[in-house]
């Protein structure tokens, strides 16, 4: 199998695992009374064009960013990295955030032209798990096929941050979870 086929197969396996979690796990965001009718999340087909190599610019002194949440509060993150990449033939940037410096993963919330139409109107998220500390110029794979809807899309018992305007992409990202 080619690397692309392996990648797509792994992506489908991850999606099946997530569907099982949503259907059966006590911590699923699907309300308990609706789980019997849940038959899986809706996804765009895996598309390697939305798996981009990005160049990292690390912010040694991260700027605070206040993000509004679905329950009307604000939550503070720090902009720790900017990723520059090509998508749809244009140079683009998206920012990564952390709430605490000791966090390993980088939170990448975003909106695009599918938001509110084919995807959740509050935006979508990605979590990047770099190997070790990022440095300026590091190449990182940003895979929009891993974009997912936050738990607040499924239940009002969850509050989630909305992507800040600096992470609104002026393009259509038909990758990851759909939500209609």
Automatic annotation (TrEMBL):
Signal peptide: none annotated. Residues 14-23 have a biased composition (Basic and acidic residues). Transmembrane segments: none annotated. Residues 14-43 are annotated as: Disordered. This is DUF1684 domain-containing protein. It comes from Halosimplex aquaticum.
């Amino acid at each position: 199998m080619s690397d692309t086929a392996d990648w797509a197969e792994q992506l489908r396996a991850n999606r099946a695992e997530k569907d099982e979690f949503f259907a059966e796990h006590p911590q699923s965001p699907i309300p308990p009374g609706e789980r019997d009718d849940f038959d899986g999340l809706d996804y765009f087909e895996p598309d390697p064009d939305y798996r981009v190599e990005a160049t990292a610019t690390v912010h040694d002194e991260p700027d605070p960013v206040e993000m509004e949440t679905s329950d009307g509060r604000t939550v503070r993150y720090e902009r720790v990295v900017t990723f520059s990449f090509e998508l749809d033939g244009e140079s683009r940037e998206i920012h990564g955030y952390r709430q605490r410096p000791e966090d390993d993963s980088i939170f990448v919330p975003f909106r695009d032209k599918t938001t509110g139409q084919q995807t959740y109107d509050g935006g979508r998220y990605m979590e990047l798990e770099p190997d070790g500390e990022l440095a300026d110029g590091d190449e990182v794979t940003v895979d929009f096929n891993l974009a997912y809807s936050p738990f607040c899309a499924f239940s009002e018992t969850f509050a989630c941050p909305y992507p800040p305007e600096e992470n609104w992409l002026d393009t259509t990202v038909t990758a990851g979870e759909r939500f209609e």
